[in-house]
Amino acid sequence: MMPAESHRQHAERLADRFPELPVQRIMTMMAEEHDMLMGFDPDGVITPLVAEATLERVEMELARRQSEAAR
After folding, report:
1. How far is residue 52's CA from residue 13's CA, in Å, rounded to a whole number?
2. Counting CB atoms within 10 angstroms of each CB, which of 11, 16, 37, 50 has the fewest?
3. pLDDT for position 43
């Protein structure tokens, strides 16, 4: 993650890295993670904790999709 990265910038970077998920889906995950971890809606710069939690959610969703597709 780059210093002082906005939520939108981080979501766009993840969407570039994981093109199977649209940026809006990643933004939704990020907002949910931010709310669960921080207790309020995201605003401004993304925290490392939220960035890591969002990355984990993206990876889990993609793994679930691959597992379902393999059935």
Report:
1. 13
2. 16
3. 67
41: left (phi over 0), alpha (psi -120 to 50) or beta: beta
pLDDT at 47 (0 to 100):
83
DSSP reduced 3-state for 47: coil
Domain-embedded: residue 2: no
Q: How far is CA 5 from the centre of its chain?
A: 13
| Beta-bridge partners for 6 | 45
Number of domains in the chain: 1
For position 7, what pLDDT does the model report? 87
Range of the domain at 52: 7-70
Q: What would the pLDDT profile of 10-64 be if each residue is shown by its tens digit?
A: 999 999 999 999 999 999 999 888 888 887 766 667 888 888 999 999 999 999 9
Asked if 62 and 20 touch (Cβ cutoff 8 Å), the reply is: yes
Query: How far is residue 48's CA from residue 40's CA, in Å, rounded to a whole number?
Result: 16
